[in-house]
Each structure stands twice: as structure tokens, then as C-alpha cells.
Amino acid sequence: MNRSENPATDEQQDDAWARLFDLAATLYLHEPGEAQLKRCRIMGMALTDLLPDETFPQLFQAAANEEVVTLQQEFFDHLFVPVSTHYCPPYAAMQGKDIPAPPLLDIRPLFQETGFDPAHLKGLPAYLRGLGRVDYIGFELAFMAILLQNALLEKEAENREALLQTADLFHEKHLRHWAADFSSRLDEKARSSYFKGCAQLTGYLATTFACATDF
Predict the structure, then answer these.
(1) Helix, strand, or coil here: 136?
(2) CATH classification of the domain holding 57
(3) Count of structural domains within the chain
(4) What is the tens place of the pLDDT at every residue in 185-210?
(5) Which of 164, 165, 162, 172 is nearest to 209 (CA)?
(6) With b meaning 16 or more CB within 10 Å and e meaning fewer, what string describes 171-201?
(7) 20 to 30 A from 102, CA-CA: which of 63, 92, 93, 133?
């Protein structure tokens, strides 16, 4: 990221990105429920003035009035039911031939090198724990969040910078090349404010974080 001469400012920026990636990951890793709706509403209220050009903060606030049961059905229709007309393949390897060069990273060795195992994410439902593939959008967003969170906790400057550089590499060489396209498709098919907000937040992370990184 653009490292300023003020470490406090850098930490605030890194913390903000970590929170956004963590929220996005949560929305893909857990079925919609009251806890997710509350978190979305709070985040939406906090971001409305900070990101006046983005609509996902308002969408997250509007989602508070939507029915949980309906959102849960939409969750499965969009992400886990290929025969659904609303299905949007949430995997990097299934985004078609329009992914720009450079080619996507082989992320499994990177996950192993950094000790990240999606199956060990806290509170993961059984159907995701046994998914058998690592390129699910929720896993990749969680990986970004964990790298940034660990960087904030790291006391050694060299180790902290290594974590941030890993996040930058993963985003620059992999995530941004498919997440923006996926988010556009999800935004088009989403029927609720909740999933439109989820899609637009994903697109924001895919495009804007790429603009903010500069090691």
C-alpha cells in the first residue's frame, strides 16, 4: 500500500482494509442471519460519509429490513446451486476466458506456505469445510483479511512488511483478475439489497485496493 511517513496513518489504512475484507469474506462464508444483517447495517452507517461515491453502504443499511429466510435461499441460489438461473460461479477457475493476463496464481502452494487452511476458518459450515477446492471467493477474501490482520499484530517491521507484500502479490496477481468480473455478475443477478451490497463491496475491494497498493 502507499506507505506514508506517518505509521499511525498506515495502520489506520491497513485496519480499514482488513475490516472490509473480513466483512466481505463473512458474507460468503456464512448464511445470512441477524448477526450479518446487524454488522452490515453498522458498517454501512460508518461508510456512508466516508465513501460518498459508493452505493454498497446504503444497500447494507437497506438490507436490515429484508427477510432472513429469503436471503438464505438467495445465498444458496447464487453460490451453491448450479442449476439455478441466479447462480454465479464463485470460483476463480470458473470465470471464463475473459480473465486478463497475467494468468491466475496457483494459490494452493501460497496458502500452504503461509499456513492458511480454509477448512480451519472459525465457524465454517460443514458444506464449506468439505468443499475440496481453495479458489472459493470467501476463502480468498478471508486470506486477504488474515494477512492484513496479522500484519497489524506483527511487531517486527520486516515481518509486517512481508505480510503486506504477500497480500499485495495475491491481490495483484490473482484476486483482482477475477473478483471484479464475478462481482459484476453477482450484482446483475442479485435480487436483494444484501447481495447487491455484497457484490459491490467485492468489486470495490477488487478494484480499489489494487489502486492503493504500491510497494
Answers:
(1) strand
(2) 1.10.3480.10
(3) 1
(4) 999 999 999 999 999 999 999 999 96
(5) 172
(6) bbebbbbbbbbbbbbbbebbebbbbbbbbbb
(7) 133
